[in-house]
Design goal:
Oligomer: single chain
Strand order of the largest sheet: 1-10-9-6-2-3-5
Number of strands: 10
Structural class: alpha/beta
Strand content: 15-25%
Bound molecules: 6-phosphogluconic acid
Radius of gyration: 17 Å
Length: 236
C-alpha cells in the first residue's frame, strides 16, 4: 500500500466527497445506483449497522423514485444477539428499510448460527451492487476489527464469525470478509461527526486499518466537515 500524498486528501483507495448532509448524500447516491443498475436483475444492497447507518436508512426510506420491488437487502455484519435485540443490526434494518418502505424489499438477515448458509447466499447473490460501510472510531468497518485476520482474503470465505479482541465493540459478530466486500460493484463509506475525525485522519494517512483496506469496484467516502475537522478540511 503506497503512502498517500500528504497534500492530496484522498483515501488510499477510492474517492472522498465532502458533503453537508451525509444521510441525504447517501440516499441520493443509492437511488442513482438503483436506477442505473445492470438491466434485468435485482439491486443487491448490503446494509451496515450503527447510528450513522440508521440515519442513512431513514433518509433512504424517504427518497423518492426507488423501485423497492427490485431491491434485495443483505446485511454486511451482525451482532450475535436475538433478532429483536436492540443491538441487532437486522432489527434496525427491518424497522427502517423493510417495514418503512412500500413494497417491502426482499430481506436476508444474518444468523450467527448459520454462517455457512449465509456464505452460500452471498455467493449466489454476487456481485453485491452496493455495500454500505461505517467507520468505527478504532478504524474497523463492518465487523472486521484491527488485528483480526479472519476477514482476510486468504480465509477463502465470504462470511466469517469475528470478535473484537479488545472488547471495545460488544458481542460476538458475523461479518462479510474483504473478499466479499472487494467483489462489490460499489462500496460507500458514510462518516459523520467529529467523533470520527481521528479514525478518518488515520485512514487518510494510509494506516493499515480495516476500513483503509477496502477496495471494491468503486469506493466512495461520504464525509461531513465535522468528521474532517479543521486540519483535514483545509486539504479538501
Ligand atoms: C456495527 C457496524 C459498524 C458501524 C461502525 C460505525 O455493527 O457496529 O456495522 O461497522 O458501521 O462502527 O457505527 P456508528 O455510525 O454508530 O459510529
Amino acid at each position: 500500500m503506497n503512502a498517500p500524498d500528504p497534500d492530496r486528501l484522498a483515501p488510499t483507495h477510492g474517492e472522498l466527497r465532502v458533503v453537508d448532509d451525509v444521510p441525504a448524500a447517501f440516499a441520493a447516491l443509492v437511488a442513482t445506483e438503483v436506477r442505473e443498475r445492470p438491466h434485468g436483475r435485482p439491486f443487491r444492497l448490503a446494509c451496515s449497522g450503527g447510528a450513522t447507518a440508521e440515519a442513512c436508512y431513514l433518509a433512504l426510506a424517504g427518497e423518492a423514485g426507488i423501485d423497492w420491488s427490485a431491491v434485495e437487502l443483505l446485511v454486511g455484519d451482525e451482532r450475535c444477539v436475538p433478532a429483536d435485540d436492540a443491538d441487532a443490526n437486522q432489527a434496525m434494518i427491518r424497522r427502517v428499510l423493510v417495514e418503512g418502505v412500500t413494497p417491502a424489499p426482499a430481506f436476508f438477515p444474518m444468523d450467527c448460527g448459520e454462517v455457512d448458509a449465509y456464505d452460500g447466499l452471498v455467493a449466489s447473490r454476487s456481485p453485491i451492487d452496493l455495500i454500505h460501510l461505517g467507520l468505527g472510531p478504532d478504524g474497523h468497518t463492518a465487523s472486521i476489527f484491527p488485528g483480526d485476520t479472519t476477514g482476510d482474503p486468504e480465509s477463502g470465505r465470504l462470511v466469517v464469525r469475528t470478535v473484537d479482541a479488545t472488547g471495545r465493540n460488544p458481542h460476538d459478530r458475523m461479518s462479510l470478509t474483504f473478499a466479499a466486500i472487494d467483489a462489490a460493484r460499489v462500496a460507500v463509506f458514510t462518516v459523520a461527526g467529529e467523533a470520527k475525525h481521528d479514525a478518518l485522519a488515520r485512514v487518510l494517512r494510509g494506516e493499515p486499518l480495516p476500513a483503509a483496506r477496502v477496495r471494491a469496484g468503486r469506493v466512495v467516502w461520504l464525509c461531513d466537515r465535522e468528521a474532517l475537522g479543521e486540519d483535514l478540511g483545509r486539504l479538501a
